[in-house]
């Protein structure tokens, strides 16, 4: 039996990060370590480690953990950033790329980045432009394997961070999703659990390359984790 895969999770306090911790429960093939800026509650039944460190020390933390893979679910919200572009970039871009650079320097083979559908460095939408710029920078680092997950609207308990319009979109998403077919399927809403399962599977994959996963591909990764497909 092979040793469990050491996976470092960054962004454990967020919606997808919490679901990744839940997805690791009962799995003997992974050893999950969460790197956070502050203490965070672990799901009941989770057998994992949590390393609390100031972001200025994250490079040393990556070296100390020596993970096989990193899942980066790191991100803030426009509201938490005080609607300040520089503050938003300091987390969603600068901190992510610092983490990725440290991972590359320490020989981490897999890097999994939770991005967003529509990510594009030329987008007129600030949020999507930042995500696209981060993706472009990650590609240049040439990881053994880079997975960029681009989910649609995330469903899950994060009400305090939601804009009124976003909350309404989630409420009506089961109806709205019916009208999104063909190429527009990628815009459908998706449960954060599915994204977390896909991220965990991506961190376990051995094939080399750069992969972009929108909703349908995220579902395929999830099935692989469950041993279905």
Largest sheet: 7 strands, parallel
Strand percentage lies at: 15-25%
What low-confidence regions span 5 or more consecutive residues with pLDDT below 50? Answer: none
Round the Cα radius of gyration to an integer and report it: 17 Å
- First-to-last CA distance: 22 Å
Helix content: 25-40%
The count of strands amounts to: 9
Report the total helices. Answer: 7
Global outline:
globular
By CATH, the architecture is named: 3-Layer(aba) Sandwich
Overall domain count: 1
Q: Indicate the CATH topology.
A: Rossmann fold
| Strand line-up in the sheet with most strands | 3-2-1-4-5-6-9
Which structural class should the secondary elements be placed in?
Answer: alpha/beta
Order of helices and strands: EHEEHEHEHEEHEHEH
Superfamily (CATH H level) name: NAD(P)-binding Rossmann-like Domain
Q: Assign the CATH class.
A: Alpha Beta
- Averaging pLDDT over every residue, what do you get? 90
Please write out the topology:
Elements: E1 5-10, H1 15-23, E2 30-36, E3 49-52, H2 58-65, E4 69-72, H3 85-105, E5 110-114, H4 126-141, E6 145-149, E7 154-155, H5 164-176, E8 190-191, H6 192-204, E9 209-213, H7 215-225
Parallel strand pairs: 1-2, 1-4, 2-3, 4-5, 5-6, 6-9, 7-8
Helix pairs in contact: 1-6, 2-3, 3-4, 6-7
List keywords for this structure.
229 residues; alpha/beta; Rossmann fold; seven-stranded parallel beta sheet; two-stranded parallel ribbon; 40% helix; globular
Description:
The chain has a single domain (5-154, 191-225), classed as Rossmann fold (3-Layer(aba) Sandwich), CATH 3.40.50.720. Helix content is 40%, strand content 17%. It is built from 7 helices and 9 strands. Helix 4 links the parallel strand 5 and strand 6 (145-149). The longest helix is centred in the middle third of the chain and has 21 residues, at 85-105. It is globular. The two termini are 22 Å apart. The mean pLDDT is 90.
């Amino acid at each position: 039996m092979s040793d469990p895969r050491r996976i470092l999770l960054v962004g454990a306090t967020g919606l997808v990060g919490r679901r990744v911790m839940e997805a690791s429960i009962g799995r003997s093939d992974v050893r999950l370590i969460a790197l956070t800026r502050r203490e965070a509650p672990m799901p009941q039944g989770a057998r994992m480690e949590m390393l609390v460190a100031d972001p200025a020390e994250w490079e040393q933390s990556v070296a100390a953990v020596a993970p096989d893979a990193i899942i980066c679910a790191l991100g803030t919200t426009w509201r938490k950033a005080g609607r300040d572009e520089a503050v938003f970039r300091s987390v969603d871009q600068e901190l992510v790329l610092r983490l990725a650079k440290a991972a590359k320097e320490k020989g981490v083979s897999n890097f999994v980045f939770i991005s967003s559908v529509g990510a594009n460095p030329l987008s007129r939408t600030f949020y999507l432009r930042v995500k696209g710029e981060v993706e472009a920078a990650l590609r240049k680092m040439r990881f053994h394997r880079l997975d960029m997950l681009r989910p649609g609207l995330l469903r899950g308990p994060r009400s305090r961070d939601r804009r009124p319009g976003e909350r309404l979109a989630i409420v009506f998403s089961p109806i709205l999703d019916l009208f999104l077919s063909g190429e527009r399927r990628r815009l459908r809403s998706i449960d954060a659990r599915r994204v977390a399962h896909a991220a965990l599977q991506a961190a376990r994959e051995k094939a080399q390359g750069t992969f972009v996963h929108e909703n349908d591909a995220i579902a395929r990764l999830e099935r692989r984790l469950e041993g279905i497909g």
